[in-house]
DUF4385 domain-containing protein (Pontibacter indicus), 168 residues
Amino acid sequence: MNQGKSKAFNYELDFRETDFRKNPELYRIGKGEQGVLLVEPYKSEILPHWRFKTPEIARESSEHIYGLFLDYLRQNDFVGADMARKFLQMGYTRSRRYANHRTGQKYKGSVPDDKKGQSGAHGRDQLPLDPDPVKAESARIFKEKWDQAKENETYKKLMAEFRAKYES
């Protein structure tokens, strides 16, 4: 299914004052995990359950977040479902980072002041891999749930409806 091109995520909104459950028209899907730690009330509902330190913790966390994802779908709440999907994705990406770099630091040196808040290496060298199989298993667990969320037919239907209504 071609999901089309979404409008850019709007970082100019007042996220502290915006309730995206009441104002779904302000939400933008964006790319990847954009907005995962900004969009309320979903951030506050999902973040307390997001953990990946061990495979057991990752399994409990991913199952709980996937359960929230299904709850949002039952409520026809696409924004909530998309945020839960983003937290599952972030569980995978953060676990993978720690699976590859035990400290979580991927690059040497600090981010230049004018590049803070942006992604990318910004000319810094990548540190050598220091594999952690425990975090790799946590990543695998989150990836499984993230894939289930992305492929959920109800989610894909709600996404198409959301894009047609708010992003066209």
